[in-house]
Amino acid sequence: MDSGADVSLLREDLAKQITREFDKEDRTFVGITKHILKVTGKLTLPVEIRGRKYHETFTISPSIEEDAIIGWSLIEKMNRLEGLSKIEIKESHDENFKKNEEIQKILKPFSEIFEEPTRTPLPEHSESDLKIELTEELPTYSPKLRPYTQKERECIKEKTDELLKQGRIRRSSSKFLCAPLIVPKKGTDKYRMVVNYKPLNAITKRDKYPIPNFEEIINWLNGARVFSTLDLKDAYHLLRIREGDEYKTAFRTPFGSFEYTVMPFGLTNAPANFQRHINGILHPYNGIFVIIYLDDILIYSSSIEEHRSHVRKVLQKLRQANLYLNAEKCQFFQNRVKFLGHIFSDAGMEVDKERIQAITNWPQPNTLRRLRSFLGFVNYSRRFMPNLSRLARPLYDLTKKNVKFKWTDRHQQAFIQVKQTLENVSILSHYKPGRETLMETDASDYGIGAILSQKQDDEKFHPIAFHSASFTDQQKIWSTWEKEAYAIITSLRKWYHFLADTDKPFKILTDHKNLTSMFTNIRTDTRPKINRWAAELDSYNFEIQYRPGRKNEPADALSRRDDLKTQVINRVLVTDGITNIFDYLRKEYDRHPEFKVILDGINDSSNFLVRNGLIINELGQVVIPKVPQLIQVICNKFHDQPTSGGHRGKISTTNRIREKFYWKGMTVDIQNYVKNCNICQKYKTRNHKQYGYLQPLPIAEKPFSHISMDFITGLPKSQDNDAILTIVDRFTKMAWFIPCNTSVTMDDLIKIFNDRFIGNYGYPTDIVSDRGSVFTSEKWRHFAHSHHINLSLSSGYHPQTNGQTERVNHILENYLRCYINKQSDNWVSYLPQAQLCYNSAQHSATKIAPYTAAFGRPAITNDWDIKMIEETGITLTQDHIYTAEQIHERINHKNKEYAEYYNRKRSRAPVFKQHDLVLVKKGKVGFFHQQHKLDSTYAGPFRVEERVGDHNYTLSFPENIRRRYPSSFHVSELEPFNDDLTYNNFKQTIQIDGILDVDDFKNPYLYLCLYNKRLTNEKFQTTAWIPQDIVHNLAADKLNDFTQRASASQEPQ
């Protein structure tokens, strides 16, 4: 729905599927985005929306991508726009299609064959009984049953009871027993039971009765316009097993052994036997207006009147044979039906999109068996893919004998190319005798390609079929003309049923000139195979015409494939045909009056001269008009290009351009271009001081109320511990060193915290920690909340937030290095001494030992402390004890000193608003890490979601990144991202025309998008890196398409 469209639009091919009869027009519309819409006609259709019907006149156009666009003319009729979720366009190519009662009138006399039979009598034996003839005597065979789940056992029990009641199976004492397979029903939680007859099939003689050839089926549908499809119900069970052969079908279950009395699924000859049976029933109509493929039946006719008669005749035959139909799977009087995995219509045949989706979502094969499975599935669409043999050649080579399965980039590229090609398959028209027919062929060094086309009602050639094949090793050494001749011969053999008896000569187009006379002027030394080919051509009525290779592109593309090239996409510039800047510039002079004046009066001016139509000033600079797209091209040349640009800075780039060009305001334009360069911003380091002055944490008012916690990890094992939990009181500076493991769980942490801290000092008011998984877990949050503890988490990748604990960790690590043994496995035994040593030493901030600040007396650390008191009689007096106010004052004073020192190397932080775009500095670890020295310095840009305090920001990450990495960053880790496009621009209806690249394939966030951009009064296309959420909102279909095409590829550069 588009409230900005004045009229409603309908895509032309869909209109032709609905009806061939509509009012023809030939004109064009200009859309609001300056797109040209070609209009070919008008058609009035009923539109149903939530039970209400409207009639709308649709303008028909081949230029729109959507099936239909509901414009304002219809929206206005609806009075309100909200709540309209689904619009269905009713087909109306014939009045009879809208009159279901007429169809019901035809079907009503045959209603019993659509109903579930009240009883299902066992069919009588007949000549259609399935005969099971073996190549050897039936051996003794009884496979061991695997354990079944409760639901699987219930399925087996229910199915065997049902079949026993119907007489379709009976108890068996056969020595040859197969095992049942329990298969989940697609889209449900139910199961169905089938029997694995693979052991029996291995020794069964094959029935050679033919199953219909698909190429014949296509040929029969020539001229068909109306279709009905029928699906037979339980058809196999209507045939008996030949008397005496029942024991061969025996199978075992947890509830006993059984054998079939009717033909089951899974037997190797069951399809051929059933095809013979159903062909006999519908023999008078088979191939005339009926196609039978096992239990699927297609009725086709050239008109509604014919179809009524055909449907009645077929249903009459089925009723006489006691066959039943699945009503929900049958379709009647359709102009477009799905049959045998393809879509058939009066326009031709096309591939089923559901199957294409299955192939495009196929994961990379990692075994030969899975590769063969993929190729088998792709082969289903072969007739729609003109260059499959070339595209998939590396994959087919991998399936050859004596070739080791090793997946390389070459195979990956072919795998992706095959899937991408499937997304754009063609509709194949029906072959119609008497129409002008064209066969185009070509051969490359390793294969042939051909297209068979016919001129249709629109006087244009449309493809009937494609053909491609690879050369064998022997054929690869043939001469060029032999390969080209073979391309013609093998294509004629492929389409013999179309081309063998044409009254009117068909044309063969080739880009090899010698072929036009090769078959008529046979030399005496011509190879025997050429003589055979020439004789074979005598049975065809054709003309060979030469067409140069540059004009033979369709067939040429089938026989060749360019190697895929990997390249880094830095910046894509859409130049709209500026291939020669000076030719473009001369044309621009004519569009700008001020330059035309200079050109006309050049002889009267001493400031300019003209050379080859270019205006040059007295400094030797080419003067150019201020055309945004022209300026973009020049800046790209002298900034982005490796030899002439090198992504130098503003001054260097300006000087380079100024040597050759001049335009008004060029300095500002060039500097803005460099400033907004995505590559420079992400890959270049910054020379300014780090952002953000020191912001000390609030000073605690009393002991043990505000603490900080951290882990020291990566330690060698000592008494089964490999980590240390450090806790520091932010008021007294007292520390606790607790041994633990890096695998500590949330329950372990809570127990340690209860035992070692809370049990002695009570619950704190605030805990500062980093954003480790333990400290951000839901259970830890719940523990803190239930005890009224505030959790203060540090910014992502900014350990200075918890600087106090970091410094204590550093002191502890140095202490342990001095005392532990050479094996470094006894550090746990030194933690109590280290804790006492630290807590009894004077702290630089409080000028008093943490122990003394906490307990009002000094700690006894050795025997000298006791002797000192005994010998001197001097004890610690009240004068040596600081009050809480004094400690608070000293910490505050120390914080100011440290901030003054720290801020010498810092600069004022920029202030980011919500939705601003920022870059994140890459570190050595985490999501934003530099993989190597030449990797980009910054990641992003990312959108600011929220400002937290003065110096911290929460960024908008996709859920898959947010779950694993911090989304909150200190301002020192961020840089502003400069671009013409801001979030507010995006919120206006920007049109994204395509997606070219992704920033990080494993964690997609940014996409390089092609979009329309406006500078001054002109609009042109350019590119920008746009966040995922915005791309999803503006171009979800293009995002899905890009993701599918790249899903199996390597990570884009």
TrEMBL record:
Give all residue intervals belonging to the Integrase catalytic domain.
699-858
Q: Does the keyword Hydrolase apply?
A: yes
Gene Ontology MF annotations: aspartic-type endopeptidase activity; DNA binding; DNA-directed DNA polymerase activity; endonuclease activity; metal ion binding; RNA binding; RNA-directed DNA polymerase activity
User: What's this protein's name?
Assistant: Reverse transcriptase
Q: Which CDD domains match?
A: retropepsin_like, RNase_HI_RT_Ty3, RT_LTR
Organism whose genome encodes this protein? Schizosaccharomyces cryophilus (strain OY26 / ATCC MYA-4695 / CBS 11777 / NBRC 106824 / NRRL Y48691) (Fission yeast)
User: Which keywords does this chain's UniProt record carry?
Assistant: Aspartyl protease, DNA integration, DNA recombination, DNA-binding, DNA-directed DNA polymerase, Endonuclease, Hydrolase, Magnesium, Metal-binding, Multifunctional enzyme, Nuclease, Nucleotidyltransferase, Protease, RNA-binding, RNA-directed DNA polymerase, Transferase
Superkingdom: Eukaryota
One GO process term, biological-process aspect = proteolysis
Instruction: State the InterPro entries in the record.
Output: DNA/RNA_pol_sf, Integrase_cat-core, Integrase_H2C2, Peptidase_aspartic_dom_sf, Retrovirus_Pol_polyprotein, Rev_trsase/Diguanyl_cyclase, RNaseH-like_sf, RNaseH_sf
Reverse transcriptase domain span: 165-344
The entry's cellular-component GO terms read: nucleus
